[in-house]
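Listing S7. Sequence submitted for prediction.
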Amino acid sequence: MYDVLTKEDIDTLKDDWLTDNVIAFWEEYLEREYLTQYANAHIVLLRPSMSFMLIQTPDPLTLKDALPNFSRTTHIFLPINDNRNPSVAEGGSHWSLLLVSVVDGVAFHYDSLNRSNSHEALISSKKISQLLGGKELKFVDLGDSPQQENSSDCGVFVCVQMKHLLLKRLLIANSKEKVSMSLGGKSIDATAGRKEILREKRQSAQQLFKEPTKD
């Protein structure tokens, strides 16, 4: 049903740096539990592996067949990783979040560690611009993003911010009203975030076991 998590992935939810798989699981959870309820929503949650591939590929147009069709997309969420070595799986040391508002022509960057991933986020923004047919995107590095208090909560911040922006800003917004995309002043409880992700993983596993098997 959802992306498969290994014991190693689940262990990172206790107090470690989240893996690609955990963030991918969370994105699929948000799609299944929330986005499916909004038939008119054209929002894409790009997986960490595809976001990384986008950064590493000189010509992003060569990835078009592997990526979602963005022709009707209004917003794109991209988990950003600072891994610069394509040969190292699960590399890097920091996650941040890039939210591209296609309709507004703006790429918002949320970094919980003092703009550490600005370079990678800017590159991603430019690559997405190419995939959107050269549509100009204004890159906004939000300096008021909530900040983590340790070196391991960045992935949790990405997950919590993604859910908040999706549910509290985008899906409830009137198409004619302007919505502030700033998260300035928002408090993020990383411990609670870890528990929520783990709880949803357990519930999804229970639901999977309840589903009847086909002969």
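Caption to Listing S7: primary sequence and predicted structure tokens for the chain studied. Strands lie at 43-45, 75-81, 95-101, 106-110, 138-141. The chain has a mean pLDDT of 92.
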